Amino acid sequence: MLDELIEKRKKALSESEQHKNRRNELNALASSHAKERNKLNGQTREFVEEAQKNKELRDKYNTEVKELKVQRNELNAQANEYFGEIESFKKEHSSFKRNSSVKELQRQIESMEFRQQTEVFSTDKERELIDKIKQMKAAIKEQEDELEQNKDLKTKLQSARDLRKEASDIHDRVTEVAELAQNHHDQMVEFYRKADQSRESADAEHKAFVEAQESADEEHQAFIACQKELRDYDKVISGLHNKKKKSKVTKEQRQVRQEAERIFELFKGGEKLTTEDILLLQRSKLI
C-alpha cells in the first residue's frame, strides 16, 4: 500500500509541475499580449490626436474659405455695378452693340473658374477650359481698351478692374486655402483609418490576453489542487512511515527484553556476566 501511495504521489508531483510550467507559460503569453495591446492603444490615441489636429486645421481653412468667398463675391458685385453702368452706356451707343456684354463674359469666366476649382478634369479638358478663360479675358480687354477712349468710362473701367483684380487675388487665395483644407481632410481621414486599424488590433490582443489569463488561472487552480493532493499523500505516507517505524521499535524492544530475560536467568543460575550483559539488564530494569 505504501509503495502504491508513493507512486501516486510521484504522478501527482509530475502533474503539479506540468500545471505550474504551463501556468507560467500562459502568464508570460498574457503579459506579452497585454504589452502589445497597450502599445497599440497608445498608437490609437496618437492617431486620433493627429486626426483631431488635422480636423481643426481643416475646419479653420474651410471657415477662411467661406470668409474669403464672401469678400470675393462682394468685390465682384461692386465691379459688376460698374460693368452694368458701362453696359448701359454701350446700349445707348450703336457702335458698341455688336460686342458681347463685358458683364456676361465676366460671369462666364467666374463660372468656368468655379468649375475648374470644384470639378475633376482630364489634363486636356482642363487646358481647354483655361484657354477659353484666356480668350474671354482677352475679349474683355479689347472692349475695355475701346471703352477707355471715353474719360468717364475709363474711370469706371479702372475702378471695375481694380475691384476685379482684388477679387481675383482673393480667388487665388480661396483656391490655395481650399487645397490646404482638402489636404488636412485627407490626412484626418487617413489618421482615423489608422486609428480604427490599431484599435481593432488592440481589441484582438486584449481578447488573446483574456484567453491566456483565463487559461493560466485554470492551470493555477489545477496546480493548487495537485499541491493539496500532495499534502494529503504526504500526511498518509508519513503516518504509515511512523507506524512502520513504531512497529519496528516495538519489535526491537521486545527482542531486547527477551535477551535480557535470558541473561537474567543465567545470572540467577550463577553464570558470570559481562559488562554488556549487566548494562542490558539495567536498561531492561531487571536489576
UniProtKB/TrEMBL annotation:
Gene3D superfamilies: 1.10.287.1490. Residues 1-44 are annotated as: Disordered. Residues 12-25 have a biased composition (Basic and acidic residues). The keyword Ribonucleoprotein does not apply. It holds the Pfam family DUF7121. InterPro entries: DUF7121 (IPR055545). This is Phosphoserine phosphatase. It comes from Methanofollis formosanus. The lineage of its organism: Archaea, Methanobacteriati, Methanobacteriota, Stenosarchaea group, Methanomicrobia.
